[in-house]
Fold each of these.
Amino acid sequence: MEVQRELSEIIRLGIKDPRIHPMTSVVSVEVTPDLKYCKAYISVLGDEEAGKATIQGLKSAEGYVRRELARRINLRNTPELKFILDQSIEYGVTMSKLIDQVTKDLHSRGDHETEGEEEEIE
């Protein structure tokens, strides 16, 4: 968890690469038990191109990120980083919007039907 927090801060404040989207977050981090490898799942609130550009920017800054991570966290080894684009948050936002739209459509159709039914009941 500490690796995730520090990685987020390094990406947010330390890297000045214009390819890295300002709305980038570290969703989760998997570090191997021997601390040699770290998979960082990155979410970018933007289009697919912004996501790809962000991952490219992070890959080019890997050396800097590893040095910063080593400086901030006292680990036996500084893990080799692998940045993976995670679209699950964006997918969830899209699905939520679709569900809201369907609910709104059903609700607007349902109101008309309900008004008619109420008149018949009375």
Amino acid sequence: MEINRVFAGLGGLFGAAGIAAYAAAAHSTSGHMATIAPILFIHAPAFLSLSFLGKLSRASYLGGLILILGLIFFIGDLVSRDFNGDRLFAFAAPLGGSLLILGWIVVAATAFKALDFKRD
């Protein structure tokens, strides 16, 4: 079975970024890196799993795409606050968090056969 190389690569990058965030948190007075690190670590193995699931169903692939957007907005906002002293844009973190919740719900929905959109 083939894997989705983009999701597999993102899994590796999220793991590496999680380590970097933990290192930054150890040397930072801001609490954002300590928040970012576990979020990235949670999603690293998830994307390694999605690299297989994304080839099985469109729903899990869609869930992965929604998770990517959620991470970009949520993590991007926290990083922007640390490095620029300001938000990425208004409501970026809540939008990202909402997308993360939605993405996980879509991935969970693939467990139900009736909601799974099989690829041809």
Amino acid sequence: MDTLTIPKKLTKHGDLVVIPRREYEEFSHWKKAAKVRTDEQWFWMPEWQRKEREADEDIRAGRIIGPFSDHKKFLAALKSKKK
């Protein structure tokens, strides 16, 4: 169950605050979306999420190489893939 907290400064003496369901649901959706840090929004974009699903699928299917112990081995693996 979702909880909506009305700041005390917006109410007087325990006033009852009624919010129509549609507005509450819109607010609830916005509130969840607002928890994403501005500098992390890119991660939740549909295109990036599609890429994340593709990466997960490749990992499950074993279509990966690595890990590498150093950058030289990583670069050598990249060069061998180009051929």
